Amino acid sequence: MTVRRSDIVVVGGSVAALRAAETVSRQAPHLSLMVVSDEVHPPHERPPLSKVGLEEPFDREALTYPAVASLREQGVTFALNTRAEGLDVANRRLLTTVGSLEYGALVAATGCEPFVPPVFAGQPDVFTLRRYEDAVGLRAAVSRPGAHVAVIGAGFIGGEFAATLAKAGRRVTVVDLADRPLGRFGDAVAREYQALHRAAGVQLRFGAAVTGLGEDGGRRFLLLDDDSRVPADVILVGVGVRPSTAWLEESGVLLDNGIVCDATLKAAERVFAAGDAVRWRNPRWGATMRIEHWTNAAEQGRVAGINAVNVFAGEDPVVCGSVPYFWSDQHGVRIQFAGYRTGTEEIVEDRNADGLLVVYRMGDLVTGVLAFERRAQFVKLRAMLRNELPWQQARTVLTSGPAPVG
Amino acid sequence: MIKVKVDFDRCDANGTCAALMPDVFRIGDDGLLEQLRTEVDPGREAELEEVIVCCPVGAIARG
Description:
- Chain A has 10 helices and 27 strands.
- In chain A, helix 1 (15-27) runs parallel beside helix 8.
- Chain A has 3 domains: 4-113 and 242-313, FAD/NAD(P)-binding domain, CATH 3.50.50.60; 116-237, FAD/NAD(P)-binding domain (3-Layer(bba) Sandwich), CATH 3.50.50; 332-395, FAD/NAD-linked reductase, C-terminal dimerisation domain (Enolase-like, domain 1), CATH 3.30.390.
- By secondary structure, chain A is α/β, with parallel strands linked by helices.
- Chain A is globular, with a radius of gyration of 22 Å.
- By secondary structure, chain B is of the alpha+beta class.
- Chain B has one domain: Alpha-Beta Plaits.
- Helix content of chain B is 24%, strand content 25%.
- Chain B is built from 2 helices and 5 strands; from the N terminus they run E-H-E-E-E-H-E.
- Chain B has a 3-stranded antiparallel beta sheet, covered by helices on one side. In chain B, strands 2-3 form a two-stranded antiparallel ribbon.
- The chains are: A alpha/beta, B alpha+beta.
- The A-B interface holds A 19, 22-23, 26, 47, 65-66, 294-295, 298-299, 301-302, 323, 325, 327, 336, 338, 373, 375-376, 378-380, 382-383, 386 and B 13-16, 18-20, 22, 26-29, 31, 49-50, 53-54, 56, 58.
């Protein structure tokens, strides 16, 4: 096979990869640039996979990032349907299913793949939500008249799709091993989340393990560990993801539930990484973390792109310091979190007629904020969290003035 | 100066811009985005770039 060459190679097909490519193209249009993705489609938005209503149009062209077209016009190559299979750091070669590719600098942005527990693996009408085709298949399956959907995992993918189904008047049950999903954010958050879904007519089976699948009169059901059954014509699994890093296993790049990077997202000589698969030292928090959320992937793509260009420019790499953030719209309520918690924080609840604001406090510092609605106040706290945030400063944003402790 | 454009038809009031450049963007008490300035100093190019790439709906652009 012939060996091709590109100054910068970006591996991956999602937002981190795209933002890296956009950044390279903008900052160094003279460099040749190739995006290698195992998907058959160019990078498209993923948040809509769980968020778009069943009655709304769901068109791949409309979901494709507009930047794809402009990058192609600028000569960027998208090598689609091409899987990375190995990386030779010493010789600067990416090994793929269609041959080797020499690079000057590489950005690894392969993200994560959903984990499917063995009880569901290979079963019909079992879906995860990662790719466009997953969503198309799931939406077709749930549109069958009378289909009852079981959502496994009450996290954000599961919660959002349950909300999408409830809005369309479908029957849906959410099953989770945890007694109190989102309980890691505190009791108030877990209660609020549960109440939100109950009020919308979503059946909840929390603290329940699926022990098997059965069939009765041609209809499938989940068997739970208390011997009860949950109708499950269609199953959506949203129990977590794992970094897609098999292609790096022989490369010498350090892997530890993700690609281990320094504060500049450097993983190896001339290799940077971006997105959900990255475990990096975040200088804002002085902590090593891996974050599976959209804005983190976008921002890391930008930083990795800058640093890939800086290899050619002979400039020092820049660091990636950021405030982890996620948002989720469920039953018309926006849930948002910003910050980085260790889990040992004191939880300060501030509820008013508009919603619930929860502040996580460690001594004199605030480490995070979670909100159901309360959008204006949330964003103020999110902005403040870019720097070390004293409790006294954060307090000024809260409305009800919760009693200070200590 | 760099012109800053917001596509309010796309805007989802996610507020990422308001968290990154609070003097340019703000989430109002009604939960919707307000644009406080339409131009920023050229020295803030990198900040604006971060805002543009981190907007989940791609609603922000240079003018």
